[in-house]
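Customer escalation, tier 2.

The customer says the design service returned an amino acid string that "doesn't look like it belongs to this structure." They asked us to rerun it and document both sides in this ticket. The original structure tokens are below, unchanged.
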């Protein structure tokens, strides 16, 4: 499921609409949205479609939006009361079509603390360079702009006009890379500038376990093949030597050693365990993606 916020004009409450795109979900989303709509506090539109992928769902929502600015969040993101106002203020100050705003994402305070959650949101946790397979905001510390590698659609806003001209690539049918691909394409085509505001916070409420990590990395590996075909200059698919190194370090023996180490010693052993595990499933996804070419 994807959520988008589209801005218009008038009083703040009348300046935006919430668009919920249910991408083939079978839960109680429709019922929840209906109950919210009956409150009549803001405009909420519910769109339903068969499960075709996040990029297709977002493009659908953009086409249906009535406002000039699109704010993307996910179905697992909770925001503060000034969230919309901050996005709107940015675009009022930056009316140029090539400017967008990225906000900060952190785990919801109600989520339990765990080494896995730390690993997933720290891109420097392994040798100061690796990790952060979900977010890596620590690399933006002290910065006011971000590269396309940080084109996270959990808390980002752009002009609708730009998104209509450059929609998400709908060949990315499953999870992974469709957002980064759009960010890179915009940078190349229109010299897109992604500004960053750490005070613009979204809270990520998404339980994650080891099985979820494995599925995520498999999907990322598979999608990396498609990304690499479009932009081989970025090297998102590792070369033969790097793949061999990944294969060696992610052998079951080394994963078992790190697993034993984290159970006995804790600390950095957790990070190495998740890192090796992530490479194992990333390689599996790569292999599956290459077979499907």
């Amino acid at each position: 499921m994807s959520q988008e916020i589209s801005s218009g004009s008038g009083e703040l409450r009348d300046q935006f609409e919430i668009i919920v795109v249910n991408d083939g979900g079978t839960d109680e989303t429709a019922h929840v949205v209906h109950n919210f709509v009956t409150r009549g506090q803001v405009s909420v539109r519910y769109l339903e479609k068969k499960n075709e992928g996040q990029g297709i769902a977002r493009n659908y929502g953009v086409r249906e939006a009535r406002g000039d600015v699109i704010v993307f969040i996910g179905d697992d993101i909770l925001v503060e009361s000034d969230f919309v106002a901050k996005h709107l203020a940015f675009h009022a100050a930056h009316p140029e079509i090539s400017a967008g705003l990225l906000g900060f994402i952190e785990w919801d305070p109600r989520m339990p603390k765990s080494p896995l959650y730390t690993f997933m949101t720290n891109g420097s946790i392994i040798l100061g360079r690796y990790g952060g397979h979900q977010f890596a905001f620590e690399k933006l510390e002290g910065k006011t702009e971000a590269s396309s590698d940080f084109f996270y659609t959990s808390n980002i806003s752009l002009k609708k006009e730009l998104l209509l001209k450059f929609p998400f690539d709908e060949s990315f049918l499953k999870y992974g890379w469709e957002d980064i691909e759009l960010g890179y394409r915009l940078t190349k085509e229109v010299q897109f500038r992604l500004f960053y505001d750490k005070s613009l916070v979204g809270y990520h409420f998404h339980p994650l376990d080891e099985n979820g990590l494995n599925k995520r990395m498999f999907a990322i590996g598979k999608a990396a093949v498609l990304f690499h075909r479009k932009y081989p200059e970025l090297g998102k698919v590792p070369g033969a030597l790097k793949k061999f190194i990944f294969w060696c370090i992610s052998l079951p023996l080394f994963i078992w050693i790190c697993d034993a180490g984290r159970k006995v010693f804790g600390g950095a052993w957790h990070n190495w365990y998740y890192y090796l595990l992530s490479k194992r499933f990333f390689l599996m996804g790569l292999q599956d993606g290459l077979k499907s070419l």
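Tier 2 assessment: The sequence is consistent with the input. The longest helix spans residues 268-291. Residues 200 and 232 are 33 Å apart (CA to CA). Sent an explanation to the customer and offered a walkthrough call.
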